[in-house]
């Protein structure tokens, strides 16, 4: 069934808004929209409150909570029996509208902000327009990261006879001029969860569009929409066939707008098929077919540049990029036919796309060794807009490196600073530090460029400190450190170089540590290790001079020493390595005892402690056992600490092996000593039998020093009259 409902307005209403009782009617058609309808209607609420208006909802057969949700916002709900015709459903709401204007949307769309639209009506600006178009942001993924914006014609002044037509992708005859809003709705209708969802929507829309063309083969909009449906399921051959049929119809019944839109769609088909030679050929023919520029040409030129860059045809890419920028300026100045925006959706007409073209132009100029052109486009980049600073940094860094013009980076930093945007500055810092890490040979040039920007922020100060360290200028480094900001907000993981330099200069860093959140300390230590090859040696040397006893200082020293130990791998200097590990182990043990109450450090409660803290406890127990020569306790503590914290396998295993070796050596010495003692006892026995008591006494006294409580030695002393004197006995008694 196809419904063409004619709505007559002339003379039927009276009221203050050009004969209407209210300014605006908002109309929705819905069906089973319980997941999004509340979000949709709540986004409309500020508009409905600001403007004399009404809300009409047409339900086409919901079986979920849609009606219940709708009733929270309006009592004007129309129950419509679905007949396979979207226009018929729309027209039921339009027929009952009392507003001067009609705004329509679907239940799976919701506004980000309606203040611009509300002002349009409350200020009276609406009296100068016949219709309006806001943006529909169509997401391609559930996360909402990939999307395209389409200028949806969704608002019009109600006039006699206005109505919706088209059984799908419904439209209406609109009266110019059109107001283009920057306000947008979120729409996830094309963010398909599965291929089956995509196919289901395609079949529904395609069948309705084919029915529409059977009813009226001259509907050029239906050819465009049907071709889009086939492109959505990647059937580009079928899409091209439909476009060609539409163009044949247009030849008989000329319609400039639809000719442009269909030809543009044909070009997009070629690019989507990746038939690049044919795509470029068709695109170039299309762009040259008109005497003046048109909005669809922006997409064509953008794609031409992309293809030429891929084929390394840098002169062609640069030419297409320049043409794009010239046309974009005309678009911005309102010199193109903006009405084309509401007939088709375009992917590459935004400010961000302009920035992409500029970066491609810069890249092409670099490949062509054209320094002047590269610099021109670098300075055209809009560094104050909401684009990724990382992309801008990449373009400037490549140009700076290629032409040896490192002042390009100074220019970029000054502009970022001028934007007074903390997020942008943070992006610059991240990008710059990544570049420094990846290009150590360029370190001095980049640091000089940052210094040359003559900025007074903490990052620039740190880069000057890096330069002083790089040049070995300890005096300057110390002077800079003394002036360095201690404001908490200036600290981040990339400021690890400040701490590194301070430690290298043997400065007490506790004033700095107190300014840093304790949760950030591990990442700063890790960053320090990553940036500096000599990190482990510096840490070892520093803690030969300093030790920290307060909890935060202990935690910091443990973090540093742990990273230093792990960075060594297989140590060349075992003594220095084990000395560092002993300092780390003692610090970890002290930290655990400082943080946890004694009742937590029991066998029943230890399991609730973090793994690193359990390690600190057990390694501390091992060290205590070692100090009281409790070999078994020492071994047990080491083994338990290794079990709890396997990342310390290298040093703990080294200690285990050393202790095992020591035990074996002691056992060997014990056996050797026992053998020698037996031999000495035999000699003394023989001397006593031979009556050589004086010589036997001397040997007995020597043996008594080693075995003072041995039964044989005590007997020998009695026989040789060398028993201990009272003074000797007294000296052995506890004092």
Primary descriptors:
735 residues, alpha/beta, Spore Coat Polysaccharide Biosynthesis Protein SpsA, Chain A, Serine Threonine Protein Phosphatase 5, Tetratricopeptide repeat, elongated, disordered N terminus
Description:
With 735 residues, the chain is α/β, with parallel strands linked by helices. Among the domains are: 22-187, Alpha-Beta Complex (Spore Coat Polysaccharide Biosynthesis Protein SpsA, Chain A), CATH 3.90.550; 195-254, Serine Threonine Protein Phosphatase 5, Tetratricopeptide repeat, CATH 1.25.40; 574-663, no CATH class; 691-732, no CATH class. It starts with 21 loop residues before the first strand and ends with a helix. Helix content is 59%, strand content 8%. Residues 1-12 have low confidence and may be disordered. The chain has helices at 37-50, 66-70, 86-95, 115-122, 195-215, 220-232, 236-252, 256-273, 276-288, 295-310, 314-332, 351-367, 371-380, 389-403, 407-418, 422-438, 443-452, 458-470, 474-483, 496-504, 510-513, 521-531, 535-545, 551-568, 574-595, 611-627, 631-644, 649-689, 693-706, 711-719, 726-732; strands spanning 22-30, 53-59, 77-79, 99-106, 109-111, 131-139, 147-157, 178-187. It has an eight-stranded mixed β-sheet with strand order 3-2-1-4-7-6-8-5, sandwiched between helices. The chain is built from 31 helices and eight strands.
């Amino acid at each position: 069934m196809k419904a063409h409902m004619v709505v007559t307005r002339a003379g039927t209403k009276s009221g203050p808004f050009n004969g209407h009782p209210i300014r605006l009617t908002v109309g929705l058609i819905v069906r089973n929209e319980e997941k999004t309808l509340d979000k949709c209607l709540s986004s409309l609420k500020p508009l409905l409150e600001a403007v004399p208006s009404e809300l009409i909802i047409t339900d086409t057969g919901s079986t979920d909570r849609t009606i219940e949700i709708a009733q929270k916002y309006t009592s004007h709900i129309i129950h419509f029996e679905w007949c396979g015709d979207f226009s018929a459903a729309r027209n039921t709401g339009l027929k009952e509208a009392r507003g001067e204007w009609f705004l329509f949307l679907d239940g799976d769309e919701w506004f980000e902000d309606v203040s611009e639209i509300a002002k349009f009506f409350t200020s009276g600006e609406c009296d100068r327009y016949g219709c309006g178009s806001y943006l529909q942001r169509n997401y391609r993924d559930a996360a909402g990261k990939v999307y395209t914006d389409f200028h949806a014609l969704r608002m019009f002044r109600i006039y006699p006879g206005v109505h919706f037509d088209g059984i799908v992708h419904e439209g209406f005859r609109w009266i110019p001029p059109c107001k283009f809003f920057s306000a947008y709705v979120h729409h996830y209708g094309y963010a398909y969860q599965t291929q089956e969802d995509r196919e289901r929507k395609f079949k529904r829309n395609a069948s309705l569009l084919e029915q529409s063309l059977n009813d009226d083969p001259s509907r050029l909009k239906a050819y465009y929409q049907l071709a889009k449906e086939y492109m959505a399921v990647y059937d580009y051959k079928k899409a091209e066939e439909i476009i060609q049929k539409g163009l044949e119809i247009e030849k008989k019944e000329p319609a400039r707008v639809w000719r442009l839109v269909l030809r543009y769609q044909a070009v997009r088909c070629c690019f989507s098929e990746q038939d690049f030679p044919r795509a470029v050929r068709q695109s170039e023919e299309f762009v040259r077919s008109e005497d003046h520029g048109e909005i669809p040409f922006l997409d064509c030129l953008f794609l031409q540049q992309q293809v030429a860059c891929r084929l390394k045809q840098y002169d062609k890419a640069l030419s297409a990029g320049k043409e794009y920028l010239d046309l974009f300026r005309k678009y911005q100045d309102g010199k193109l036919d903006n009405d084309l925006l509401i007939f088709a959706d375009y992917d590459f007409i935004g400010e961000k796309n302009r920035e992409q073209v500029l970066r491609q132009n810069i890249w092409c100029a670099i490949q062509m060794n054209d320094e002047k052109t590269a610099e021109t486009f670098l300075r055209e980049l809009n560094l104050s807009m909401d684009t990724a600073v990382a992309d801008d940094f990449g373009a400037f860094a490549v140009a700076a490196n290629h032409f040896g013009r490192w002042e390009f980076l100074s220019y970029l930093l000054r502009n970022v600073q001028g934007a007074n945007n903390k997020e942008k500055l943070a992006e610059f810092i991240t990008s710059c530090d990544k570049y420094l890490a990846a290009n150590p040979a360029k370190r001095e040039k980049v640091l000089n460029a940052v210094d040359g920007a003559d900025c007074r922020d903490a990052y620039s100060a740190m880069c000057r400190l890096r330069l002083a360290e790089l040049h070995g200028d300890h005096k300057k480094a110390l002077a800079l450190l003394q002036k360095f900001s201690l404001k908490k907000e200036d600290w981040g993981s990339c400021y690890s170089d400040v701490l590194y330099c301070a430690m290298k200069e043997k400065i007490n860093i506790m004033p700095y540590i107190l300014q840093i959140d304790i949760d950030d300390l591990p990442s700063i230590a890790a960053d320090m290790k990553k940036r500096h090859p000599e990190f482990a040696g510096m840490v070892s040397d520093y803690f030969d001079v300093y030790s920290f006893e307060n909890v935060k200082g202990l935690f910091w020293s443990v973090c540093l020493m742990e990273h230093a130990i792990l960075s060594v791998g297989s140590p060349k200097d075992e003594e220095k390595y084990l000395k560092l590990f002993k300092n780390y182990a003692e610090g970890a043990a002290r930290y655990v005892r400082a943080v946890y109450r004694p009742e937590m450090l029991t066998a029943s409660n230890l399991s609730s402690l973090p793994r690193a803290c359990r390690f600190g406890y057990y390694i501390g127990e091992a060290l205590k056992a070692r100090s009281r020569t409790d070999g078994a306790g020492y071994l047990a503590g080491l083994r338990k600490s290794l079990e709890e914290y396997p990342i310390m396998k290298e040093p703990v295993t080294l200690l285990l092996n050393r202790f095992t070796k020591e035990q074996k050596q002691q056992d060997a010495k014990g056996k050797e000593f026992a053998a020698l003692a037996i031999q000495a006892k035999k000699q003394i026995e023989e001397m006593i039998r031979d009556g050589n008591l004086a010589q036997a006494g001397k040997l007995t006294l020597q043996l008594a020093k080693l075995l003072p409580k041995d039964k044989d030695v005590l007997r020998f002393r009695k026989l040789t009259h060398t028993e201990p004197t009272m003074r000797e006995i007294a000296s052995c008694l506890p004092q």
